Amino acid sequence: MHKTKAVATRSQTIGNLKSICFCSHERKEVSGFAVYRIYGFGGKQIDFGLGRVLTQSESHLWIEAPVRLKPGRQVWLSYIPEEEVVVIKAQVIEIKAGDKNLFCIKLEILFKIDKKI
After folding, report:
1. What is the rounded average pLDDT of the residues 5-26?
2. What pTM was estimated for this model as a whole?
3. d(C-alpha 17, C-alpha 7), whole Å
């Protein structure tokens, strides 16, 4: 069995996002991976995995992940940019098809905790 690499390069993904995101003055690029957890009705975890945080503003976040999420779905994310741990509860606003079974997902931040490490 062989492994397939299903990750677009950072420059390809950011290039795709520049046509999607139009408020570049408030956006900051974030490098790093995010662990996402998706919960269904009743609080039961239905999926989890590893995605990549692409851009972040005060109210929105773009991630790249190998999961197709419907708008309205709520997601918990945790990631470590630089020297802090960030935990976010977010709602899916928009989804765009990416390269090689990856999706660019726009999330509205509902709740955020960040702590220096």
Report:
1. 39
2. 0.62
3. 15
